[in-house]
Amino acid sequence: MLLFSDITFWMVFIFFLTIYAFIRRYSRMGMVLYVAAFSLLFFYLANGWLMVLLPAVALVAWWAGRMLATMHQKRGGAASHCWKDRLVLTLAIVIILLPLLYFKYSNFFLSSINAVFSSNFGLLDVALPVGISFFTFQAISYVVDVYRGRFTMQVSLLEFLFYLSFFPLLLAGPITRAHVLLPQVRKPGAISERCLYMGLWLVMIGLVKKCVIADYIAQYNDWVFSSPATYSGFECVMGILGYTVQIYCDFSGYSDISIGIAALMGFHLLENFSFPYSAPSPSEFWHRWHISLSTWFRDYVYIPLGGNRCSRVRTYLNNIITMLVAGLWHGSTWMFVLWGGIHGLGLVVHKVFKPLLSRVPDNRWTNGLAVVLTFIFVAIAWVFFRSESVASACQLLSRSVVDFDIAYLIPFVKARPWWCVLTLVPLAAQALGRRGFQRLQTRFILLPWIVKLLLFLLTVQLILQFQTSNVQPFIYYQF
User: How confident is the model at residue 313 (pLDDT cuts 50, 70, 90)?
Assistant: First the structure.
């Protein structure tokens, strides 16, 4: 499997990009065919024969979208729905979901049945195809958007295959809607110098987050989570803090690289992370964390359940159900469901006290306190996300409180100085905010090419300096 953090991928990508630039200049259809073929090869290298799932899902989603669009046209372009529309939509969603349910959740359901009924059903020998959750959700969003009349552009099967298999998004998102990417495929503009340099900037930032920060601090975090009883309370707190930073740098780093690669190819994708650890509430956190996934669940789960257009109690229930489903999407264990439930309760508590909180003076001190409390809540929730069991998570949290001693601070910093630096820098960078980051990006774009080259070489040197013995896969590949 080619990883974005692997030098082999970048050697292949440079070769691919050289041919791509030539084809894009002279033939749009040739570009679409070339990228789709490369994406399918990319997916084959990751999954072997299971790669057939992607074109099969693409065919079903495209056919369903075409059927729905045709029925809308016969009614004069209206998106009003009859039973035939709903039947096509339902069948399409069920067929698209079947591979995901089988490969990702079969053993989860069987083991749950065994636990509840003391049965002895044998678990299946199935391997989860990399990226299946992401292209499944993109396919569903396309069909539902056509059904709702929100996406009306007619696309060919080849164009849709390009969209669903686009390799920068294929393995771990971000989940990109059809209305964002397909119009750019239909009318590709010239790749501007600014677009190229923005792509380079995002790739560099993403590689530093993943290969320098996340991979380096992961080793200590893994030690703490695997055996919390052998560490002091202070060391356990550092492990929790470290994993909170690790998962952010790992996944936001992947998103930066993915969006950056797309920019190098001339495609503009929406941001997926917007400084989530500076959020002053759980609700705001989910407006900034994995934006493509949180908005997907908002549009295709929360709103269809009724959203906030119903009673207060029903709205709270909708929040909890949506987050439980989001937790289950992340992984087929009850720990992920529990993590989703914790965030669901956090959203409900925030909504309950929102009228009271609105009376609190809005200044930098109260906002700072809100950010700290939200960060603590999110970090505690990550413990259940990362731990193998509830007992292990509770043991880690218990030792963090009962056995905490600040006297360990100086010895810890002396023993792990680089870990401390690489953990604190991403947290301090949260203060930049979106505007600060965009200003840095603009300054990079305007720098002379020789300075850009030096910064790129510095990035490579940092990666070589901090790299681990083995290339670490991105955390979200498993989802």
Answer: very high
Token code pair at residue 261 = 């690669």
Residue 85 reports pLDDT greater than 60: yes
Half-sphere exposure of 399 (CA within 13 A, CB side): 22
Q: Is 134 left (phi over 0), alpha (psi -120 to 50) or beta?
A: alpha
pLDDT over threshold 70, residue 190: yes
- Phi, psi for residue 289 in degrees, rounded to 5: -100, 130
pLDDT for 30 equals 94
pLDDT value of residue 73: 81
pTM of structure: 0.92
333 C-beta neighbours (distance < 10 Å), count? 16
In the chain, domain spans: 7-189, 194-478
Dihedral (C-alpha) 357, 318, 270, 164: value to the nearest 10 degrees?
A: 170
Mean per-residue pLDDT, 58-62 = 97
Which tokens is 192 given?
């501007």
Counting beta carbons within 10 angstroms of the beta carbon of residue 256, is it exposed (0 to 12), middle (13 to 18) or buried (19 or more)? Answer: buried
Identify the burial level of 156 via C-beta atoms within 10 angstroms of its C-beta, where 0-12 means exposed, 13-18 middle and 19 or more buried.
middle
3-state helix/strand/coil string of 75-92? CCCCCCCCHHHHHHHHHH
330 is catalytic: yes
- Of the candidates 72, 290, 330, 343, the residue annotated as catalytic is 330
Per-residue model confidence as pLDDT tens digits over 243-275: 999 999 999 999 999 999 999 999 999 999 999
Cβ partners under 8 Å of residue 163, min gap 6: 138, 142, 155, 176, 178, 181, 182, 185
DSSP 156: -
